[in-house]
Amino acid sequence: MKSLALLFCLAQLWGCHSAPHGPWVGYLVLNCDDPETEQAALAAVDYVNRHLLWGFKHILNQIDKVRVWPRRPFGEVFEMEIDTLETTCHVLDPTPLANCPVRQLHEHAVEGDCKVHVLKQDGQFHVLSAKCDSSPDSAEDVRKVCPGCALLVPRNNTAVVHAAEAALAAFNAQSNGSYFQLVEISRAQLVPLPESTYVEFVVAATDCVAKEVTDQSQCNLLADKQYGFCKATLTKKLGGEEVAVTCTVFQTQPVVPQPQPDGTNQTASSPAVVPDAPSPPPASPPAASLVVGPMVVKTPQKPPLHQAHYDLRHTFSGVASVESASGEAFHQAKAPSVAQPGVAVATGPAPPVCPGRIRYFKV
C-alpha cells in the first residue's frame, strides 16, 4: 500500500511539473491536420506567394510539425514546418491559388520547405517570420515515374535562351497590339524525341506597336506594367526549326486596394487573354485571412541564372525580421523537456499527430 501511495504522489508531482505555470513555460502540440493548424499553414503559404518576385506560386502539400506557444499579452504563435509544391501559375498570374494546377511528377516537380511563425490574435493570422527553400525532384525519381520525360535545365542554357527569343519574335510578328519584351525565363526542358526545347517565360508590353517596330531599343515598358506568360516549343527540323508559342496577357485593371505586409496597397488584376489562349478559372474566396505588420527587409537577392528553378531561398534571403502589427517581434522561449504539457503519461506510445496528410504527392 505504501508503494502504491508513493507512486500516486509521484504521479501527482509529475503532473504539476508538466502543467504550464506561465505564458512562456511550455508549448502545446497540435495535430498537424487540425483545422486551426491548417488555417495557419494556409496563411503562411499565402504570405510566401505574396512575397515571390519570380517563378511560380506554391501550394500547401503537407504540414510536418507544429507547436503552439502562448504570447504575451494576447494570442498564440504557431511554430510550423510545412512542405509546398510548385504550381503551373506564375506569380504574376491573378488566378486564385486554389485554381492553380500542381506541377506533376512527370513534369519534373519542385518541392518547397518552409519554417514559419504565425501569430493568431483576435481570430486573424499574422505571419511573423518565414524561411524557405525549394528544390526540384531528383532526376532518378523522375526517370522512375517517366523514363522518357524531359528534365529541367538551367534557364541560361544557350538553347533555352534561343528558344525563348525565337518564340517571342514569333509572338510579336503575329500581334496586332503592343510590342512585348522578354522579362524572365521561368523554366525550361530539353526534349530528346523529337529533339526540341520547351520553355516558359514572362513578357511585358512596351509603348511600341508590334507591326511598326524598327528599333527595339527605342521601346519602353508601359508605366502601368502589363505582363504576359508564354509557353513555347522550338523543334529542330531538317534544314531549320519550327516554333509553336501561346501567350496569355494579364491586363491590370483598377480594383479595391488590398492590405499588404509592407503597409502599401496592391491592386488585384484580372487577365485579358489573347486568342487561342485558355481562359483562367473563376475566382474563389481566400482560404484564410492574412494581416501582418511592419517588415524590415533588404533588397531580395536575384536568383542565379544557372539554376533550373527559382529557389524560394532567394525570396526571403534579405528578410531581417518580420514583426506583428503591434510591433512586438516573436521571441521563442526554451522548450521544456516534456512533450505535451498537462497531458497525463500514457501506458503505451501516444499516436503520432505529425506529419500530417499529403494533399498531392511526396517528392
TrEMBL record:
Keyword terms of this UniProt record: Disulfide bond, Glycoprotein, Phosphoprotein, Repeat, Secreted, Signal
Key word Signal present: yes
Localization per record: Secreted
Keyword Disulfide bond in annotation: yes
One MF term in the entry's GO annotations: cysteine-type endopeptidase inhibitor activity
Pfam families hit by this protein: Cystatin
CDD domains hit by this protein: CY
Gene3D superfamilies for this protein: 3.10.450.10
Region described as Disordered: 254-287
Listed Low complexity bias regions: 254-276
Annotated ranges, domain Cystatin fetuin-A-type: 27-133, 144-255
Main location as per UniProt: secreted
Gene Ontology CC terms: blood microparticle; extracellular matrix
Range of residues in the leader sequence: 1-18
Lineage: superkingdom: Eukaryota
PANTHER family documented for this protein: ALPHA-2-HS-GLYCOPROTEIN (PTHR13814:SF6), FETUIN (PTHR13814)
This protein's name: Alpha-2-HS-glycoprotein
Source organism of the structure: Tupaia chinensis (Chinese tree shrew)
